[in-house]
Structure formats: C-alpha cells, structure tokens
Amino acid sequence: MIDNLAADGGGKSRGKPSGVRVGLLGRLGVSRRWQRNLTAYWMILPALLLYVVFKVYPIGQGLWISLHRWDGLSDMEWLGLRNYQFVFRDKVFWLALKHTFVFAFAVTIIKNALGLFLAVLLNRKMRGRTFFRAAAFMPVTMAFVVIGVLWSWIYNPTFGLLNNILKSLGLESLIMGWLSDPKIALWSIVTVDVWKWTGFHMVLFLAGLQNIPLELYEAATIDGASRVQSFLKITLPLLAQVTAVSVLMSLMGAFVSNYDVVYVMTGGGPYHSTEVAMTWIVQTGFRFSALGKASAMSFIVFAFIFVVGVIQLATMTRNKKYEM
Q1: Which of 102, 133, 201, 231 is a Cys-bridge partner for 115, taking CB atoms 3.0 to 4.6 Å apart?
Q2: pLDDT value of residue 308
Q3: Average pLDDT of the chain to the nearest whole number
C-alpha cells in the first residue's frame, strides 16, 4: 500500500501542480510564452486602434485626396500625379518652402545658442536666479496667437514700442516697417519665435548642466584650464545628448509649427515675403478650394522634413558612445 501511495504521489508530482488553472489557450496547446505575448498585444490594442484611427487613416486619406481634384464638397475627380505636377510648377509654393527652411534653420541655431548661454549663466549661484529663470520661461506658457498680437503692436510703425524706443534714443535711422518691409519681415517673425522658445531650450540645457559632476570642473581648474577650455572640453561634450534632443525638437517644431505666428502677424505678406509652406498649404486648400493640390503639397513637405530629420539623426548619432 505504501508503494502504491508513493507511486500515486510520484504521478501527481509529474503532472500539473495542484491549484494551477489551465485556460482555454492552454487546452488548445498554446504555450505560456505565446499566452504572455497575447496578453501584451491585448493591452496595447486600444492605443494601437487610436493611433490607426487618428494617425494612419488620416495620412492614407490625405494621400488619396492628393490624387484627386476636390473642393471639399463636390465629387472627387481622379487626376493621378497631376496635382504633384501642378505643385512643382507653383512658384509661390517653392518660395514658401525656401522661407520655411530659412525660418527653421535660423530659429534652431539662435534658440539653442541663446538657450545654452542662458542655461550656463543661470546655472551659477547668483541673487534672483529663480526669478530670472521663471522670467525666461514665461513666454513658453503663452499662446502663439497672443504673442503674435503682442508683437504686432510692438512692431507697429505708428505707435509701436520698438520704434518709439529707437526714436527716444536718437536712432531714427533704424526706424522701419518691421512687418511691412519684405527684406526684414521674415526675420522679424524669426525674432518672435526665438523670444518664445528660448526659455524652453534653456530648461533642457539646465537639466543637462546639473547632471555634470562638479569634480570635473575642479580637476580642470587644478590642471590650469580656463573657463573657456572647461566649457569646450567638459560642458559641450557632456551636453551632446541634450543638444541632440534640443536641436531635433526645435528643428522639427520650426518646420510644422510656424503657421499660427505667421498668419496672425502678416498672413504671409507682404508680397509673399513671409509665406511659409503651412500658410500657403492652408490658403491653397481652403481659400482656393484646391484640397487635392494642398494635400500634394503636404506630402512634399513631409518628404523634405523626413529627409532632414534622418540626416540630422545620422549626423548626431555617428559616435557609438552616444545613445538617443
């Protein structure tokens, strides 16, 4: 009998442990590994569905529209790639695309340079440091429409603050139509974008600076390194990752987030001197009721931005020690 009980116990130990429930998938022969994978897939399914509905489907629909003539109300008329041919012959679009690249690269360089300068300056111990940090970040919290109206008043040639300050300083030769002169209108808008976003990039660089060990600077001082040498040999290399993220965010944002400030301040004028790709796309689609052509413009802009982004990432991640 003892032998029989031992045999029965041994048989139970070789079977499935007591208390473990075997689900339907287990009964169908699905391994535990695949069951865990299926559980993960079910958990990400809601987010995946939202992404498909609000991202993938609109992109596909936009591509389909770009192959048709459509005003948004009547039936679509198939054109194939002729919308893209129309875009390639549109001189205003290519001028707007040129302005977009000038705007994007200018604000990216200036914002990151000023942000790094302010971060280094406000990372030191000084009286009122918190106040100056908050003041530099304040424009980031303001809507671009509000900022556009505010700076339109500042640039106003009649009662604008900027020209009145120049006049009071005896610099009448510098007084000009900041938004009405085609030669400087785009750069006036670049200044507004830089003013708004410099504080944001300052915060990014401040976070990176505060992660650099002070012992490195102390050792450099003992070795006789100057502040400039410490900045070039310690600060900049250790901020490489933060710089890459900051440059990528500012560059991609400048390409696609310049519509509101341009529209509020100049509407693309004068004489298309501040026209950017986004403003011309919106005008083409809704003012001229050419949604197919506007969609084609959007995909051309997307292709350019994609190429620029890939080149930038490839350039800034060549070092194997660097990880995004």
Answers
A1: 201
A2: 86
A3: 87
Q: Give the pLDDT score at 1.
A: 42
Fold of 92-316: MetI-like fold (1.10.3720)
Nearest to 208 by CA among 235, 228, 226: 235
Distances (CA, A) of 10 to 4, 112, 183: 10, 71, 91
pLDDT value for 59: 93
Domain range list for the chain: 92-316
The pLDDT value given to residue 147: 94
Residue 263 has what pLDDT?
94
Give residue for tokens 């502040």: 227
* DSSP helix, strand, coil percent of the chain (3-state; round to 5): 70, 0, 25
**Tokens, residue 282:** 């919106």
The count of other CB atoms within 10 Å of the CB of residue 233 is 13
Q: Would you say 79 and 69 are in contact if contact means Cβ atoms under 8 Å apart?
A: yes
| The pair of three-digit structure tokens given for residue 169, joined into one six-digit string | 């300083």
Residues of the chain with pLDDT under 70: 1-32, 35, 317-324
Over the stretch 27-43, which tens digit does the pLDDT of each residue have?
Answer: 555 566 776 777 788 88
SS3 assignment for 164-189: HHHHHCCCHHHCCCCCCCCCCHHHHH
Structure confidence at residue 30 (pLDDT): 59
Cβ–Cβ < 8 Å for 220, 234: yes
pLDDT at 312: 79
Q: Which residues of 59-96 are buried (b: 16+ CB within 10 A; e: fewer)?
A: eeebeebbbbbbeeeeeeeebeeebbebbeebeebebb
Nearest-angstrom CA–CA distance, 272 and 158: 23
b/e map of 285-296 (b: 16 or more CB within 10 Å)? Answer: beeeebbbbbbb
Pairwise CA distance, residues 175 & 47, whole Å: 54
- Cα–Cα distance between 146 and 96 in angstroms, integer? 24
